[in-house]
């Protein structure tokens, strides 16, 4: 009988999105790492549709412990720009390996999106990986 790797038994996939109307910022809650666990983030993908302005940056954000407390980690996502009807679209698919720690009460993984001027549209982002004990 075949056996599954431990990471296959603890895999997760999560998706979050936000709509924005006349703002320069959008924050997307994606996943909360359970207490006592480490989320090994292996991939992310997504897209943003918006008016014809410029998307300055998009990044994943989560907490990692350090010797002196906690550290916010920002992973900037490389993206491809294109046009979509009367607006613009940014898409990305990234393979990565990073670790988000759940701590004693669970911690959020979120995405943050910044534009150079007020925009309207929406963004969706997915992440996947697996959990291991902290």
What are the defining features of this structure?
134 residues, mainly beta, seven-stranded antiparallel beta sheet, 1 helix, 7 strands, 78% strand
Number of helical segments with 4 or more residues? 1
Total DSSP E strands: 7
Assembly category: single chain
User: What percentage of amino acids are in beta strands?
Assistant: over 45%
Shape: elongated
Q: N-to-C terminal Cα separation, in Å?
A: 30 Å
Query: Regions with pLDDT < 50 over 5+ consecutive residues?
Result: none
SSE order, as H and E? Answer: HEEEEEEE
Q: What would you report as the Rg, rounded to the nearest angstrom?
A: 16 Å
The residue fraction in helices comes out at under 10%
Largest sheet composition: 7 strands, antiparallel
Helix vs. strand class: mainly beta
Q: Overall mean pLDDT score?
A: 85
Question: Could you characterize what this model shows?
Answer:
This protein is 3% helix and 78% strand. It has 134 residues and is mostly beta strands. It has a domain at 22-89 and 108-120. A hairpin with a 2-residue loop joins β5 and β6. The radius of gyration is 16 Å and the shape is elongated. The model has no long low-confidence stretch (mean pLDDT 85).
